[in-house]
Amino acid sequence: MSPLRQSSPASSAAASTRRTRTPAVDAACAEAVDLARDAAEETAWPTRVGEHLGLRGEGDRVVTHDFACLDPAYRGWRWAVTVTRAARAKNVTVDEVVLLPDDGALLAPPWVPWLERLRPGDLGPGDLLPTAPDDVRLAPGYTQVDDATDHENQWELGLGRVRVLSREGRDEAAERWYEGTAGPRAPIAASAPAQCSTCGFYVPLAGEMRLVFGVCANEYAPDDGRVVSADHGCGAHSEAVVVPPVSEHNPPVIDELGYDVVPEDTPADSEAEEALGRS
């Protein structure tokens, strides 16, 4: 067998240097400041390109020049113009011109999935909120045992209270709740996938009321914490587990005619606007 070949420390260091070396800045590309500025001014308004901020090497014979952006609509941004040349060629050409944000630039907020954007009260008539099969707020029905059932039955007799609701009082409350916005005739109930009586977030009331009324315990439902009828419903039903198919969206439309009013005004912006008016 031939012995294993071992590399020397010097060769390993040289290989590491080759892998991590910083690209050398090409002299011809570095001197092409005027070419880069002309490209930026051709892309933007000539008065919207400011001073040369510096350059950086992107690769072999590839350099990016940075220019200040004087456009008041893009405060904190900079123009980045990348130039390059072919091997053994003297002519430098423009590769790309882009507008890049710096620290403090005004950017759109990061995208957040719709389920994380959803807040209590967002659900309306016709809306459907699918419930995940592994929702930690729900458990199989056979595992739920109410330990306080006997205790509640004793309190229903009136123990500990001077007076309790009469039959007339219960009937009036039941009619008021049933005919209200938490009853079966509410607009949101008409488009619900199922009734509250089959929802895992439905907590029945005690006593005689439990046959008709309960309390909603879904924080995303419009009736969270309120009394609802058993035949009420909304789109936040616990068994609405079918996720709607992803719809195809049209490409974004860029409004190039409208504008935003920027109250802040700087001397640089005023000079740029005056120069634009004289051009």
What does this structure look like?
The protein has 8 helices and 7 strands; from the N terminus they run H-H-H-E-E-E-E-H-H-H-H-E-E-E-H. By secondary structure, the protein is of the alpha+beta class. The strands form 2 sheets. The chain has a 4-stranded antiparallel β-sheet, with helices on one face. A 3-stranded antiparallel β-sheet has the order 5-6-7. A hairpin with an 8-residue loop joins strand 5 and strand 6. It is elongated, with a radius of gyration of 35 Å. The N and C termini lie far apart (82 Å). The mean pLDDT is 80.
Strand content: 15-25%
Overall pLDDT: 80
String of helices and strands: HHHEEEEHHHHEEEH
* Uncertain regions spanning at least 5 consecutive residues: none
Radius of gyration: 35 Å
Head-to-tail CA distance between termini: 82 Å
Strand order of the largest sheet: 1-2-3-4
User: How can the largest sheet be summarized?
Assistant: 4 strands, antiparallel
What is the number of strand segments?
A: 7
Number of helices: 8
3D shape: elongated
Share of helical residues:
10-25%
Structural class: alpha+beta
Quick overview of this protein structure:
With 279 residues, the chain is α+β, with helices and mostly antiparallel strands. Helix content is 24%, strand content 16%. Among the domains are: 19-101, Roll (Nuclear Transport Factor 2, Chain: A); 113-139 and 166-243, no CATH class.
